[in-house]
Amino acid sequence: MRKFKEGFIEKTLLTSALITVAVTIGIVSVLAFEAVRFFKEVSIFDFFTDSQWTPLFTDKHYGILPLLSGTFLTSAIAISVALPIGLSISIYLSEYAPKSFRKTVKPMLELLAAIPTVVYGFFALIIVTPYLQGIFPNLSGFNSLSAGLVMGIMIIPFISSISEDALHAVPRELREASYGMGATKLQTAFKVVVPAASSGIIVSIILAISRAIGETMIVAVAAGQQPRLTLNPMVPIETITAYIVQVSLGDVQHGSIEYRTIFAAGITLFAFTFVLNTISYRIRKKYQSKYE
Amino acid sequence: MELVAEKNTKNFTMNKESEQESKTKISIKNARVWYGDFEAVKGISMDIKPNSVTAFIGPSGCGKSTFLRLFNRMNDYIDGFRMEGKIKIDGTNIYNKKIHVEELRKEVGMVFQKPNPFPKSIYENVAYGLKIQGISDKKVLDSRVEKALRQADLWEEVKDDLKKSALALSGGQQQRLCIARTLAVEPSIILMDEPTSALDPISTAKIENLIFGLKEKYTIIIVTHNMQQASRISDYTAFFYIGELVEYSKTKTLFTKPEKKRTENYITGRFG
User: Fold this and answer.
1) What are the contacts of B32-37 at 24+ separation with CB within 8 A?
2) Cβ(A174)–Cβ(B116) under 8 Å?
3) Cα distance between residue B39 and residue A171, in whole Å
4) From the CB of residue A137, how many other CB atoms can be counted at a distance below 10 Å?
5) What is the ipTM, given to two decimal places?
6) Chain B residue with Cα closest to A172
7) What homologous superfamily does CATH list for A49-288?
8) CA of B215 to nearest chain A CA: how many angstroms apart?
9) For chain B, what is the domain count?
10) Measured between beta carbons, which residues in chain A are less than 8 angstroms from residue B195?
11) Pairwise CA distance, residues A147 & A12, whole Å
């Protein structure tokens, strides 16, 4: 009886693991299947070189570049906000802040990632954009600058929290060795602790980039819906994710070429985040073994 | 600063046995340490002689490591640390508010229990202490790195792969690298907190030989759990028990004719 019970539990656990794998495989195959049908009608070469993306217009163009540039632009702005702030926070929390401060502030920072992204999007559109228009009068109502800035705030905890974990995991003995030779706290932080935790910090940055690329609501609400091949942060653009939302909410016919563009865009997005996540997973595995 | 000025006078007093005997490198007056409510060191006074090896022995938790870490103020960053009493190095009270701890630690080097090289190259490990002082001249760095590695008896083993990661060295080599790293800064005192407890007997013997040679130029204080080690390498031995200094004398005297019953019980292995 006991043996049966053990076996039953084991099978149940195995099943739940298998379901997760099966769902992932299912999603990827649907993506791939529909994308393949899309590429039967549109050449891959055009897809990656055409500078216009107008599947919903009469003059149809299927160039992913404008969506990629939009995604790149918002993500780059977000990272340039989140990286310096997130890193400073992590170094302060790990090396300088008293224990009690660290214990209260870290969970509060992580709350930033728990705010629904539609709230951020709304915040960008209603508050940040009008404020920025006071500084840059020619800023459009929808623009990648405001969406990128707000997205940067949102991904701060990805960088600060994971980097802080990595910094904190650096053995106390290394800090003491450095202090013991007459190094100051600042020298120790930047010359010993940060380099020793570099792989963890890189992982945090990659995960943050991956999150920024996949972020949907903020850019859909605040960055606009105009696929445009540009690096100008002042004008409306469209990201891959925002395009998918736009088409999913619209009334394109199921099975049509317009409908399949979602999957072509989706698989491109998936390829990017998959590569980034794989790199971060590899680095993390290497780094875990370093101090054990 | 007196801490630095003393170095020059050291060389010519070294040969004069009698004068050296009477000199004091570190003078501790009624040192007491608390971690929160726990009193780890309960009022210890002692004088440590220059150019000698002094061993601190005693059972685990007797406060000897805490006491050792007072000399380079390494306890300062520990939560709840509080101390009373005076510790003078070459006549300067190191707990004086005007003391720069960074300057003090250049003068009082430390080697730790577990080899703790930085995850950098062998060269970078040894050059670290010099670089943070702002020394960037490649020639100066090269020669001081070589000198320190030679002093730590590691040069011959690593001279061809100075660029290799220090983590690739064996445990014993890593510990000698840590000693070299400390020597490169040219301190006058070296604190060693159970430096061989993580090493095999052969590596331990190498480090003991090294310590023996180093005392010509440095004042060495070593915490050890290994009684044979204390009797082999030290000139003076101090026995600690629950935060107190029980007995402190020449190593030979302490191991052959201990004054206190408790010391005798400990060194003969009846407790601890």
Assistant:
1) B32/B83, B32/B84, B32/B85, B33/B63, B33/B66, B33/B67, B33/B70, B33/B75, B33/B81, B33/B82, B33/B83, B34/B80, B34/B81, B34/B82, B34/B83, B35/B78, B35/B79, B35/B80, B35/B81, B35/B82, B36/B79, B36/B80
2) yes
3) 26
4) 7
5) 0.86
6) B116
7) MetI-like (1.10.3720.10)
8) 19
9) 1
10) none
11) 44
Quote the tokens at residue A42.
């549109």
* pLDDT tens figures, B201-238: 999 999 999 999 899 999 999 999 889 999 999 999 99
DSSP H helices in chain B: 2-13, 17-22, 64-68, 101-107, 122-131, 138-151, 155-158, 171-184, 201-214, 227-233, 251-256, 261-267
A90 interfacial to chain B (CB closer than 8 Å): no
Q: Burial level of B202, CB count in 10 A (0-12/13-18/19+)?
A: exposed
Say if B184 falls within a structural domain: yes
Segment B12-39 mean pLDDT = 73
Residues of chain B with Cβ-Cβ distance to A173 below 8 Å are 112, 114, 116
Judging contacts by C-beta atoms under 8 Å, the chain A residues touching residue B131 are: 191
Whether residue A207 contacts residue A158, with contact meaning beta carbons closer than 8 Å, is answered with: yes
**Which residue(s) pair with B38 in the sheet?**
B35
Residue B76, domain CATH: 3.40.50.300
Query: By the CB < 8 Å criterion, does A183 face chain B?
Result: yes
Chain B residues within 8 A of A184 when measuring between CB atoms: 102, 132
Q: Which domain holds residue B65?
A: 2-267
Cα A207 to Cα A71, A119, A140, A163, distances in angstroms: 15, 22, 30, 11
* A192 touching B (Cβ < 8 Å): yes
- B272 within some domain: no
Residue B7 pLDDT > 50: no
Measured between CA atoms, how close is B167 to chain A, in angstroms?
A: 10
Residue B154, classed as helix, strand or coil, is coil
Q: What is the pLDDT of residues A240-284, one digit of tens each?
A: 999 999 998 888 888 888 899 999 999 999 999 999 999 988 888
